[in-house]
Design goal:
- 60% of the residues lie in helices and 0% in strands.
- It is mainly α.
- It has a domain at 49-134.
- The chain is elongated, with a radius of gyration of 65 Å.
- It starts with 38 loop residues before the first helix and ends in a 30-residue tail after the last helix.
- 0% of the residues are buried.
């Protein structure tokens, strides 16, 4: 099927090649021989088909091993994802709870700011009220001082009473039936 590959134009002392004997060439004049293209030249050339087959088989084996590794890795990742799914679900739930808590805290913070503003306004009003109460206390103290200067008993003149009025008696008859 394949022929033995023999060197052309060179001799190797002490080596014999099966098949055709090589002519002894002088060692000083080493030149490759030019071959004529024809049936004999193609018959002497050995085609390295086995290298192509070896390359194809090794590429196929490499592809099969890569496919196997990819399958194992994919199945391992799927199993890991299945194991981690409850934890991821719990983490998502905690994240949702955290977001809800953030909204609640923001609402409380807003109400606290509004309440603080209300207390500030009430404090300003209270300060005005305290000033007014101090002024009222001064006025009350003045009135109380004046009332202490008044005599404890005052005799007032008695008021005349009108005599009790009596109404005149009247007798009347009507021209109604029966009377």
């Amino acid at each position: 099927m394949t022929e033995v590959l023999r060197p052309i134009g060179r001799t190797f002392p002490g080596r014999t090649f099966p098949g055709r004997a090589l002519p002894d060439l002088p060692t000083a004049d080493v030149r490759p021989a030019v071959r004529a293209i024809g049936a004999r030249a193609s018959a002497e050339v050995r085609r390295p088909y086995h290298l192509g087959v070896l390359l194809g088989v090794s590429a196929g084996a490499y592809a099969v091993s890569l496919a196997g590794v990819s399958f194992l890795q994919a199945s391992t990742e799927a199993a890991t994802a299945a194991v981690r799914a409850p934890a991821l679900s719990a983490i998502d739930g905690m994240a949702a709870d955290n977001d809800r808590l953030e909204r609640v805290v923001a609402g409380i913070r807003e109400r606290l700011a509004t309440t603080g503003d209300g207390y500030g306004a009430a404090a300003a009003t209270l300060a005005d009220l305290e000033v007014q109460l101090d002024a009222l206390a001064v006025t009350v103290a003045e009135v109380e001082g004046q009332s202490l200067k008044l005599p404890t008993r005052i005799s007032l003149p008695s008021a005349p009473r009108p005599a009790a009025a009596t109404q005149p008696r009247t007798v009347a008859t009507t021209g109604a039936s029966g009377g």
